[in-house]
User: What shape does this take?
Amino acid sequence: MDSTTSELPTRTPLRATASNGLKIVVVGGFGVGKTTMVRAVSEIRPLSTEEVMTQAGATVDVNNGAYAKTTTTVAFDFGRISLDEQMVLYLFGAPGQERFWFLWDSLFAGTLGAVVLVDTRRLADSWYAIDRLEHHGTPFIVARNNFEPPVHDLSAVRGALDLSPDVPLIDCDARNRDSAKQVLITLVNHLYALSTARENTP
Amino acid sequence: MSRRLLDDEDPDRLYTVTGGRSRTDAIALDLVTLIVSESEPAPGMQSEHVRILRMCRRPVAVVEISAELAMPVSVVKILLADLLDTGRVSARHPVSGAAGSSLPSGDFLRKVLVGLHNL
Assistant: This one.
């Protein structure tokens, strides 16, 4: 899955002036290329960490004696991009499986937006993620990752995903830095359009 | 510590690290809140606190500290809340430029776009 060969440093410190962390989440099924995309644009080698939660969905209470029996772990990867002197964008690769969404509010509240990364051979994997993002009111775009040349045209994909015409849908190659960068730009352009439309509404 | 904490299912250690506490004020820390050390480690400090203070001489996001310590985010937040209380670290909270609505302003997003185009 990780086909890039460039060696990124693990611990490059941020600028001393860095003051504002931003979040964008890449959601997708197993093996769709989330980490590959994060790696393609990140200034550090992607790191991974985890969060624990109780089955009820709250984050862990370590005072709870039944800790080990009632918790589940969700792991996710991330990389980062220093945008300017102050702003640092953190890019998270997150699994779209059901238990992950219990953690959305505690981990990803305040996320600028999301990229749903899809694999046309397994489109059904994305339905749940799209449904959850709509439920959480998180703006998103859909990017089809083409590790191999695509078989279907994008309008067929839009139909199969039952995607609203307002949601951008693009092709990408998650291994390619420029392509991954273009995915992020498409997302932020989409956010910009949504934001200015709202600002211009009396 | 090289083993992943949760791989060896050791809740006792988590309990020890946090002194058995859960803290609701720790929740105010975001994954991308940037932490900066305001002092050097002092003798007798808990080893996790020492590592955090050394790591954060330059700003480091909560999620990076979590990855570096190989500890769950919620546990790291509790450790950080202790250090914040005693003024040993400061926190730079994320500002999205969102006013009233959940979407950031056009001005804010333009800055993000400039940064992305410069990649």
Summary: Chain A has one domain: 20-199. The longest helix of chain A spans residues 177-199. Chain A has a mean pLDDT of 86.
